[in-house]
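Morning, I've got a small favour to ask if you have a moment. It would help a lot if you went through both lines with me. I owe you a coffee for this, so here goes:
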Amino acid sequence: MVRDKEIDDEFLQLLRQHPGVFVTPNLGVTSRSMESGRPAWLDDPLLHETIPPGEIQRLENQFSNRKPEVLANTRRSWDLQVRNLQKIREAGARVVLGSDSAGDPSRTMGWHAIWEVDALAKAGMKPSEVIVASTRLAAETLRLDQLGMLAPGKSADFVVLNGNPLENIANTRKIYKVYLRGEEVDRAGMRKQWTN
């Protein structure tokens, strides 16, 4: 994703000429830090269920006492990235989920994908488009033929939710059950490991 300047017509023409291009916008990095004060997502129950307390404290410290000029720069960056995402989508590039969460200790594993899902919706994609970009299109792009959708012959990896994500993409965080290869994940056991 181009994040430092407006995408120009030449770039968009190149995208149209090469229909196999895909983009992982990585908007979640910017969107998570646009709020002044303590971000509301720090109180999300799923965060506390899946991230160790020490990591949450690190996030608390990272997002406290941000200066007004930092927030203003973040907002300008967000607005630019949203405009560029719209141009890329209009040019026909494939938008897929990518979280940029591996290999950097300042990143929170798993939560970058959640921020990205929220950010794509906040940037103007319909919840149904975000879900397809996060599942089927991402799997197809990576040629992970067994993943990405529920269908005969595919791996039975899916999440059961307590809310309709088509009504509000934040409902993707209202997880009731998780299944990997058809087996229910012991979320209570995992939660106990995080909190001990």
